[in-house]
Amino acid sequence: MLELRIKKWTRIKQLWKTYIMTKKILILSGSPKKDGNTAALVDWFAEGARSKGARVEIVCTAFLKYKSTGCTSCRVCQKLDKYECAINDEAKPVLAKMARVNVIVMATPLYFFGASAQLKLVFDRMFSLYKWDNKAGTMETPLKGKTLVLMASAFEDVGLDALSKPFVLTAKYTGMKFASLLVPNAGVSGDIRNKPGIRKKAMALGKKVA
Known about the structure:
Blueprint: H1 2-21, E1 24-29, H2 37-51, E2 55-60, H3 91-98, E3 103-109, H4 117-123, E4 131-133, E5 138-140, E6 147-153, H5 160-174, E7 177-183, H6 198-209
Parallel strand pairs: 1-2, 1-3, 3-6, 6-7
Antiparallel strand pairs: 4-5
Helix pairs in contact: 2-6
């Protein structure tokens, strides 16, 4: 009886260790299209990451139910003990998950030289995941040390550098590692699936951060 209990406890510890060591990846897909270029990049990246044993969750930000169009600058989050948004909608638990995972992936098409509005709805509300003490000049965040990944595509070879800048700066400011896959000349929605080498690159990136 005692031996069975020891074996059971050993097995539980092994499973818990595996769970702790498994990379947790949250992908925010910011395209309003479910089968476009962004969806393809997300699928390929996730395939690569899962092949390395990572736990991957994909959230399509275009289809969440929101109570606000982005951050309202209410600053209630700065008065809370927790790192959470004060707006109670479907974006709130997504933001909470960002604080718990190892890797955050932002995937978006290029819209007018920037990320999609559907992604920005959540991206701007990441404000709630930081605590500033303006008098002391300090900032604390649970995002420090995590990895931020950007995947983006554009119809032609214009604008991806401008799109990537806010994400690069966010990672640097926050103390996050940064990686990206930017695909110019991807064509119209779905054309990226016929572009040689992109699936391999997206899968490789997923494997690398997993």
